[in-house]
Amino acid sequence: MTWKNTTDRWGPVSQLLHWLIVLLVLVLAIVGLTMGELPKTPKYFWVYTMHKSTGITLLALVLVRIAWRLYAGAPRPVHGTPTWQARVASVTHVLLYALLLVMPLSGWLYDSASGLRPFRWYGLVEMPKLSAPNTGVADLSHDAHELLFWVLAVLVVVHAAAALYHHMFQNDDTLRRMLPGRRRGQQAG
Amino acid sequence: MSHKLTTPAAVAATLVALMASAPALAADYVQAAGSTLAFATKYDGEVFTGTLPGFSTTLSFDPADLSDAKLDVTIPLAGADTGNGDRDTTLRGADFFNVAKFAQARYSATKFRSLGGDQYAADGTLELRGVSKPVTLTFTWTPGTAPVLAGKATVKRLDFGVGGGDWADTDTIPDEVAVSTRVVLKPAE
Q1: Which of A49, A81, A115, A187 has an alpha carbon 20 to 30 Å from B41's alpha carbon atom?
Q2: Domains with residue ranges and CATH for chain B
Q3: Which residues of A touch B83 (CB under 8 A)?
Q4: Which CATH number describes the domain made up of A12-181?
Q5: Which residues between 100 and 159 in chain B have a beta carbon less than 8 angstroms from any beta carbon of chain A?
Q6: pLDDT tens for each residue of B11-24
């Protein structure tokens, strides 16, 4: 077994990063969409701090993931995939990576420009400010954070639907090669 | 009055006598454009400032005779501006200024002291959020056709119930709020 990715399979490092990021995005989305309903008093500010801290964690993981992919390579599209589908998939992947970077960055910028209080990562590490307090920057970054979330949500649905389509209707390895365990061919053998 | 106003000399003598017999009145002033009232405090160690636009001042003040000095400042609170919409909303709310019930604060002083040079102190009363407590304003007085009163005061927010409940923790928001003002004055009509 290799830690790296092969031409037909994602290695364990890429798999772990992929599914960990899925989990974090899910938690961030649920908390992010609902925390605005909380009373705006210090008793509940830890929820915001958790959302922001987890967002920074996500940013770090996405950077590691991209670096690992550049180092360890990526599998080729499964055999028989039409070129146009492979291209659409590639564009989707690039957009997903981009959004996974821009989402935490826009949130971080919003936090900085709001100038409400210090942001300490999980209460431990004082995070630098990306901007001085600025209402215009705060509004813009907040709107971007919200709008881009929905773009990300749509792309995630498209991405997951494509994987499931390959898995259930094409009956190929597209989804399975991002999952732990042995390949179908090996299981059959 | 026994003088017959028959000669210019007699008129002049009468005028001088009238002026000499009048009480020494402190000059009366009202607030002119360009005046500011601001406050500064911290959240979680991070400084933020706010302005209180729309305040109005009347002042009777004669540096040579402080016994008749009188200051009266009315401060509408709904316009408190800290550069963050969420924070301003919280500030207007029941936990802080409670503007629905106490639309304005008032500072009045009749006891003035000289601190030497152009420095003075007014031992006045601040009425804020339904509570009246003594607050001392120290200021410099710059005389002229548009005299300027530049002052500072320290207000203990908890004395007035500003930031109660969840916000009362002075580790998060210190009790002492720094207030500073620069009032440009013009003679009262």
Answers
A1: A49
A2: 26-187 (2.40.128.110)
A3: 115, 133, 135
A4: 1.20.950.20
A5: none
A6: 666 666 655 544 44
